Amino acid sequence: MAQKFYISGSEKFADASKYKFGKYITFSIMAAFILRLGQLQIIEGDKYKSVSEAQAIKKVRVEPFRGNIFDRNGNMVVHNEASFSVTLTPSSFKPEVMPLLSSILEMDSTEIQAVVKKYLVYSKFNPIKIYRDADFRIVSLIEEYSDELPGIDVVVEPKRLYEFSGNMAHLLGYTREISKQQLANAPYYYPGDLVGQAGIERTFEQDLRGREGVEYVAVNKFGQRVASYNEGKNDVPAKNGFDLFIGIDIQLQELAEKLLEGRRGAVVAVNPEDGGVLALASKPDYDPRSFSGKVTASVFRELSNNEASPLLHRAIMSQYPPGSTWKMLIAMAALQEGIINEQTTINCGGGLQYGGKFRKCHGAHGPTAVRKAIQTSCNVFFYTLGMRLGYEKFERYGKMFGFGMKSGVDLPHENGGLLPTKSWLESRLGKGGASEGRLVNYGIGQGEILVTPLQMAVYTAAIANEGTYNQPHVVTHIRNNITNRKEPLNYRSEKLPIDKSVFKIIKDGMFDVVNVSGGTASAAKLYDVSVCGKTGTAENPHGQDHAWFVAFAPKENPKIALCVFVENAGFGGAIAAPIAHKLLDAFFHNEKYDEYMGKKIPRRKDSTAVTAEPIVIPEIQETEDVIVD
């Protein structure tokens, strides 16, 4: 007999519960798969599509921004903005798309090929910058046709901007594409990199350039970027360059450039307290903005071929006889060595007969002591001292004030001038070359002596501060962007072995040059600031004489020392001294900037303005001589 089975109500409920639970589990799993599939295909579809298209991982350089440059008051002088450059990677580029690329860049294909050929010798895998400072039209077209332009990319690089109205060209310098020779000596650079080529941009290149970064990206078979690799976790960020702080008084600099306009010459102003450069102008010059961004090949060629030599930094490279501005050096040496004292007189009858030649003076000064000799620029007095001094002492004191050697200023291409020593003369002219007759000329700063305007400004500053020779410098501090600390730079300072009493005599004579009747530089006088100065007219066998003027002010606790030099301009008192007058006037009186610049400009915020001190004219014998030095 067949056996029957019965299912109780509780068993039926248990089976229904299991069925429902299984159904919910199934639907939940299906929903999870559907949601995940939607996330992968819809929400993150582009991301995974890029990854699927990626054929390789590419290492991309990220260029840092160069450091900024600030003036003595913390105002930004030079900074950067982002600029777009077009690069071509030879290994990925297809020659058949050259017409399209040429049309987008509006460049002849031969010009593009010439750029590529220039750098192809380094590596066909390195991107070559073929177009700088691309505008929105070019960038957008390259993006639009990116699939048809394999090996063509747009990268970001810094572009220098200048926040002042002058040029300051020789001081700041400029950046330019690295040369083959520089690449050979600096393996950490790449073809097309911008490097400092002049001025402090060159001297402080390693501080300003920063440290490059690295970005890893996934690229497709065309070499085009399709995604970041590992969400950027392996990237190394770029470190921007360090910032420089310079001691330049921007408004004094702009005025110096304006006053030299149309001339060939230089102005150098320094702080006697520490050697910091307040202004350094050289004319003719150029606009450093012309080297920022897209630079045509003709820019540098035109400057190089210009007969006026605008690339020549006359303040530190050009060398000239110092003329009568040299006389204080001869006087200091003679006083310190006891060859003369303050009361010693030498009779001037209008000239000196020596070696069968009559050497003229500016007039017949009669019995003349050192103070009056400086005031009237008496040649006879210094002819005589030159001979009495002799070669050994002449060399010692010349080197003491830095002549015949580089000053060590933080600018490239400085020349050291020439101090004609006995050994130098004999090596070129034979044993009799160092004759006493040459010392006659050396006494008044003529002959083979050659100096730079910078050397003369530093020499004048050492007189102003009564015997401390400070190494001249443009950059005062560097801000380390890693530690975020503003760090001062150390420069050489040396106390010269000359008595204070000697400097007092020299400073009195230089004061008389400007402020006493018969002096050679009355054009430099200020009525509320005691200016001390000395004119010079350097003989030029190739044309009109050169004009010199050196000065410092005030007489006590001086705040500025300067040198004005103008090529082929004639008498220093007539040409260079009036330029110095305006510079000093504007330095001590803010409102004078507006007048001399011929326009309204912002007032200086610095603390260099000095409370004017009354001038006390000492009692001194006046002269009726006509002075033309």
How does this model look, in words?
By secondary structure, this protein is α+β, with helices and mostly antiparallel strands. The protein folds into two domains: 64-246, Penicillin-binding protein 2a (Domain 2), CATH 3.90.1310; 250-285 and 313-597, DD-peptidase/beta-lactamase superfamily (Beta-lactamase). Strands 2, 3, 4, 5, 10, 18 and 19 form a seven-stranded mixed beta sheet that branches. It has a five-stranded antiparallel beta sheet with strand order 12-11-23-22-21, with helices on both faces. Helix 10 packs antiparallel against helix 19, helix 12 packs across helix 14 and helix 14 (379-400) crosses helix 16 (436-442). The chain is elongated, with a radius of gyration of 36 Å. The N and C termini lie far apart (150 Å).
Features:
629 residues, Penicillin-binding protein 2a (Domain 2), Beta-lactamase, 2 domains, seven-stranded mixed β-sheet, elongated
By DSSP, the count of extended strands is 23
The overall pLDDT average reads: 86
Radius of gyration: 36 Å
Number of domains: 2
Shape: elongated
Structural category: alpha+beta
Q: What low-confidence regions span 5 or more consecutive residues with pLDDT below 50?
A: 601-627
Number of helices: 20
Q: How much beta, percentage-wise?
A: 15-25%
Q: What would you say the CATH architecture of the largest domain is?
A: 3-Layer(aba) Sandwich
The H-level CATH homologous superfamily of the largest domain, spelled out, is DD-peptidase/beta-lactamase superfamily
Distance between the termini: 150 Å
